[in-house]
Amino acid sequence: MEVATTVLIIAVQLMAPLAWAVYGEIIAERSGVLNVGLEGAVLLGAWATAVGYTETGDAWIGVLAGVGVGVLTGAVLAFLYVWRKVDQIVGGIIVILLAGGITVTFWVSMQGSQPTTNLPRLPLPLLSEIPIVGPALFGQNLLVLAALIAGPVLFLLLTRSRWGMRLRVAGEAPEALDSSGVSVRRTRTVGIVVGTTLGAVGGATLVLTSSSGAFVANMSAGLGFIALAVVILARWNPLIGLGAALAFGVLQALQYQAQSLPWLAGVPTQLILALPYLASILVVAFNRSARYPTATGIPWEGKG
Question: What is the DSSP string of 117-148?
């Protein structure tokens, strides 16, 4: 019982950064943009959050710094993808490479001396006392709790709001959106900026949930790429994306509790560490029937 609770607590903590990245990619791809640069956004968000935190000693100022860098990165990507029609795969790879270099270079010179720690947990009364799932789902910090709530909220926004409808049309039938007098480019710009910012929030969550407020070079460790696979598995549905992110969190959590689980005792550590990445490959390989939004990755050639 205790081991199961511990695994689930760790899994939810590891799920949250991935969930934010998944939400961001769903929004971007729904709008018609394939944001391969998501990995760079996660890394930049983590770096900016850590810099803001270590400079001021205030974790929430760090989060604001991460969000600000996410908005700026999203604006750059929108300019490249939507307005300049740069190849979205090539542009994304460039952003990832730049993010890796910038974060390592400037972390050494910009990190402050203020002591840091993880965000405090905010146990919800009664709910956090439910056996096994209570501490894992309702005893986490605010960024993790927000990630759990954001899935249903985003689902409702995409399926019930005018903004969500326009976003989906921009990714499926941009000609119809244009004919109704709504700018496809502006809709996609909002989609990529919001999506990239959520990816940066994933980086902030990574820093403040599992790394004690500090930054480590390349600490995203492929999280943005895993998010690309999870989006396919989730069929661009935020609710399924939340569940899939939790499943990946469980796979990652197993490495921390392998010695406590008899059925994993004989499994090589390297294999356990590779499980999330192997799962990502399998998701892509066996979800060939998943269909991207029709216009995703295709630059808009119209006037609006």
Answer: -PPPB-PPTTGGGSTTHHHHHHSSBHHHHHHH
What is the secondary structure of 196-219 as a DSSP string?
HHHHHHHHHHHHHHHSTT---TTT
Question: What single DSSP character describes residue 85?
Answer: -
The CA distance from 157 to 190, in Å, is 14
Number of helical (H) and strand (E) elements in the chain, helices listed first: 12, 0
What's the token pair of residue 233?
Answer: 């598995």
In this structure, what token pair is assigned to residue 69?
């860098």
Other C-beta atoms closer than 10 Å to the C-beta of 199 total: 35
Q: Nearest Cα to 85, choosing from 299, 261, 282?
A: 299
249 C-beta neighbours (distance < 10 Å), count: 24
Q: Cα 290 vs. chain centroid, distance in angstroms?
A: 20
Whether 40 and 199 have beta carbons less than 8 Å apart is answered as no
The three-class DSSP label of residue 224 is helix
Per-residue pLDDT of the chain (304 residues), as tens digits, is: 577 778 888 899 999 999 999 999 999 999 999 999 999 999 999 999 999 999 999 999 999 999 999 999 999 999 999 999 999 999 999 999 999 999 999 998 888 888 888 898 888 888 888 887 888 888 899 999 999 999 999 999 999 999 999 999 999 999 999 999 999 999 999 999 999 999 999 999 999 997 778 899 999 989 999 999 999 999 999 999 999 999 999 888 887 766 666 666 667 777 777 888 888 888 877 776 678 899 999 999 887 7
pTM greater than the 0.85 cutoff:
yes
d(CA 269, CA 141): 29
First-to-last alpha carbon distance for the chain, in angstroms, is: 58
